[in-house]
Write a structure and sequence with these properties.
The chain has 786 residues and is an alpha/beta fold. It has a domain at 622-773: Leucine-rich Repeat Variant, CATH 1.25.10. The chain is 46% helix and 7% strand. It contains 33 helices and 14 strands. A ten-stranded parallel β-sheet has the order 3-4-5-8-9-10-11-12-13-14. It is elongated and about 105 Å long. The two termini are 34 Å apart. Keywords: Leucine-rich repeat, Repeat, Ubl conjugation pathway. Pfam families: LRR_Zer-1, ZER1-like_2nd. Residues 767-786 are annotated as: Disordered. One of its GO terms (cellular component) is Cul2-RING ubiquitin ligase complex.
Length: 786
């Protein structure tokens, strides 16, 4: 059997790391002074494990809402005698100055700080502790790290506790840190300073660095460019994304003759005085002969640099430089490994001399763009994901696994970026629909569910919520959502809390809620009931009543209540406590002709009537009269009449002594029940789904209420004769045959009841002899019992 997309199992290292992080106190740590987490004294962890622990911890905090961060986690790695860190990747507001200070004694080789907005100039001071070992440093998006807080001093700030207090309190103002320099960082080779504050002088900051081979100055305002020439013989990679290009800067870049990667791209919607030309591209190709990667995305071409259309149309697409449709690239010695042409007209030509091209011409270019720009350029990634959305919606996505993995990665990476969340969730809806489903593994689909729920948690905005809810509808419910069952229910109930929610989201969310409680065990139903499920549904019903509207939300809400009360007495009690019966009567009065609504309401009340302790609350003249009148209903075939009779059957089962009303009389109601049952066609196909016959079977071996016994026997005969493949095995399994034999033995059983009991037993016997003769029952529509 072929493996499905995304079916590769996690490594043992990855599984063990996550387990340890979720169970720190049971594996590596103990609770120390002031509840600080402390590493056990008998543990030594090498760098391979420590790096994995820290980096996975950051990922879990960022992507898993159930994972609880530990305030003193980084303190576990304070002592290099027991822990060794070498390569650390930290991101977002998770990281504070004190966390970096905790690991200051480690000999870090690589340190990546991405969008760590909470770091201040205190962390610059900490960086100097790593200057003798650090080879790679990323400070992308750390907007406050060159600022220091200035405010009124604390009464005492001698110990670490006061330093933490000072870190957390708001400063009256911030000033720029001008004293920091990279003096002494002699081993530093790779440096990312993207987004460096405009007031920081990049030239002065970088001057001490003699051995830089890779430099990223994206979105940096360069006051001059000559300083770059100090690395003319060493620099292999230079990124100047969204840097204002000038003749001086380009001349300097062309002196960096050992460059292998050059990125002078820009966001196409950002204004600039500079325009790319054929002459500039030619100079880059001629002077920078070692280039294997070039990105000129977003640039408008000043002049035409492509071959005539009739020449380009000749032959199949080729990567050979000599056949390049872009004339300056014909001088390349070999095809580039990467060429960024996103948001340019050049991406649409036929012959491009590069193995990997970003652009918008086709699926491959779009996926390359998402891959290349997700981490540091969400503004481009979200546009590329939007183009992938169009491909999946209108055309066909041929690289499904790659597409899904890239969108999932983008949503994880940019959890707080609304534009990425909107486009990513929309793309996931089309990438997980029926057309692609058979090719996707369980692991991959679970990853999709996780990022969708992350988006629902983070954003209450209408578009994100709608996209996420619609995407969840592409999954088998509840089976595929069961691993996040509690979380998804909480999120859906939160969506439904506002009194005036967007109508489309409300409809989808109620549908999902209904589906989630349709085919799950009682434990799940009870847990969801405690979350406020019953009250939320009744609030929706109340609002619809006020609006005098009976729509899908109204019907799904009653259907969901029918499902969640099935064999769960606590939820039935909640229904009664929250004025559920009053709403039932109001709905009957307001919508007398809504058959689906009546069926769902009576199905729910059948569940309530099954709970002996709650039946006295149904035994009032008003309710008994309503149920009796509904016996004659022809709504939805026999369903409303059948369910009304079921409610009354359970009430009658409690005996005449509990019937404390004069009107209606008990015997008159029983006569109406007999008449109703006689009127039903026993071969009726049913719009119902039983998971268990237990509530019906308890009505069989008794003489208190023969009509209740007859209703139960009729129900069994109807189900096993119309759907023998589904219900004969269930009846046999639950001991129904023995109970039917007792019906035959009872003198109080009516003749027609005994006759029907025999037919049920015969049907089950015939089924055992020839089980292949029948169908397996109806398709289960949401809104049915069970």
């Amino acid at each position: 059997m072929a493996a499905k997309a995304g079916d590769d199992p996690d490594s043992l290292m990855a599984l063990a790391t996550v387990f340890c992080l979720r169970n720190l106190r049971k594996t590596m740590c103990y609770q120390g002074f002031r509840n600080r987490l402390c590493l056990r004294s008998d543990i030594f962890l090498p760098s391979e494990i420590c790096d994995k622990l820290v980096n996975t911890y950051v990922e879990l905090v960022h992507t898993d809402s159930y994972f609880e961060p530990e305030e003193s986690f980084f303190q576990l790695f304070a002592d290099p005698r027991s822990t060794r860190l070498t390569r650390v990747q930290l991101r977002e507001n998770l990281v504070l100055d004190r966390d970096l200070e905790a690991i200051r004694k480690q000999d870090l080789i690589e340190l990546s700080l991405t969008c760590c907005h909470s770091l201040t100039s205190r962390s610059l001071k900490t960086l100097t502790c790593f200057r003798e070992t650090l080879v790679s440093l990323c400070l992308f998006g750390c907007s406050q790290i060159f600022c220091k807080k200035v405010g009124p001093p604390l009464a005492c700030n001698e110990d670490s506790e006061d330093e933490e207090e000072e870190e957390d309190r708001p400063a009256s103002r911030q000033v720029l840190e001008l004293d920091f320099s990279f003096q002494g960082f002699n081993r530093l080779r790779l440096l990312n300073l993207a987004g460096l504050p405009e007031a920081v002088n990049a030239e002065r900051l970088l001057k001490p660095l003699r051995s830089i081979t890779s430099l990223d100055l994206s979105n940096v305002n360069l006051q001059g460019a000559a300083f770059l020439s100090q690395w003319r013989d060493r620099l292999a990679s230079l990124v100047l994304y969204n840097v204002e290009l000038s003749e001086e800067l380009l001349c300097t870049v062309l002196e960096l003759v050992n460059l292998r990667h050059l990125d002078i791209s820009r966001e196409g919607r950002k204004s600039t005085k500079f325009q790319m030309s054929r002459k500039i591209l030619t100079a880059i190709v001629q002077r920078l002969v070692h280039l294997v990667s070039l990105d000129i995305s977003g640039h408008v071409m000043l002049d035409n640099c492509t071959v005539p259309h009739f020449e380009e149309a000749m032959g199949r697409p080729s990567m050979e430089p000599s056949k390049s449709s872009i004339i300056p690239f014909q001088e390349l010695k070999r095809p580039l490994q990467f060429l960024g042409l996103y948001d340019t007209t050049l991406c649409s030509v036929t012959h491009i001399p590069a193995y990997k091209v970003t652009g918008s011409k086709n699926e491959d270019q779009v996926l390359n763009a998402i891959e290349a720009y997700t981490e540091f350029r969400p503004e481009l990634a979200h546009r590329a994901i939007n183009q992938l959305f169009d491909i999946a919606r209108i055309q066909h996505c041929s690289q499904l696994l790659r597409a899904l993995q890239l969108v999932i990665a983008a949503l994880r990476c940019h959890k707080f970026d609304k534009s990425v969340q909107v486009t990513g969730s929309a793309a996931l809806f089309y990438l997980t629909n029926t057309e692609y489903r058979s090719d996707q593994s369980v692991c991959l689909r679970r990853d999709v569910i996780q990022v969708v729920l992350n988006g629902m948690e983070q954003y209450q905005e209408v578009t994100v919520q709608r996209n996420c809810c619609l995407t969840l509808c592409n999954f088998s419910i509840p089976e595929e959502l069961e691993f996040q069952y509690s979380r998804v229910n909480q999120l859906l109930l939160k969506i439904l809390e506002p009194a005036r929610q967007d109508e489309s989201i409300q409809r989808i969310a109620v549908h999902l809620c209904n589906a989630l409680v349709c085919q799950v065990d009682n434990h799940h139903k009870e847990a969801v009931g405690k979350m406020g499920f019953v009250k939320t549904m009744l609030n929706l019903i109340q609002k619809k009543l006020q609006d005098q509207t009976c729509d899908q939300v109204m019907e799904f809400s009653w259907s969901a209540l029918w499902n969640i009360t099935d064999e769960t007495p606590d939820n039935c009690q909640m229904f009664l406590n929250c004025r559920g019966m009053s709403l039932f009567l109001d709905c009957l009065k307001e919508f007398p002709d809504k058959q689906e609504l009546h069926r769902n309401m009576l199905g729910l009340l059948g569940n309530v009537a099954e709970v002996r302790a709650l039946r006295p609350q149904l035994l009032t003249p008003q309710f008994i009269t309503v149920f009796s009148n509904l016996l004659e209903s022809k709504a939805d075939g026999i369903e409303v009449s059948y369910n009304a009779c079921g409610v009354l059957s359970h009430i009658m089962f409690d005996g005449p002594e509990v019937w404390a009303m004069d009107e209606p009389r008990r015997d008159a109601v029983m006569d109406r029940m007999w008449d109703a049952i006689q009127s039903w066609d026993v071969s009726s196909r049913r719009n119902i789904n039983y998971r268990s016959f237990e509530p019906i079977l308890r009505l069989l071996p008794q003489g208190i209420s023969p009509v209740s016994q007859h209703w139960a026997t009729w129900a069994l005969f109807n189900l096993v004769s119309v759907y023998p493949g589904k219900y004969c095995p269930l009846l046999i399994k639950e001991g129904g045959i023995n109970l039917l034999e007792k019906v035959l033995e009872l003198d109080t059983s009516h003749l027609e009841t005994k006759d029907m009991a025999r037919k049920v037993m015969e049907q089950c016997e015939n089924f055992k002899e020839d089980p292949m003769e029948t169908n397996n029952g109806p398709e289960v529509n949401y809104g049915q019992r069970g």
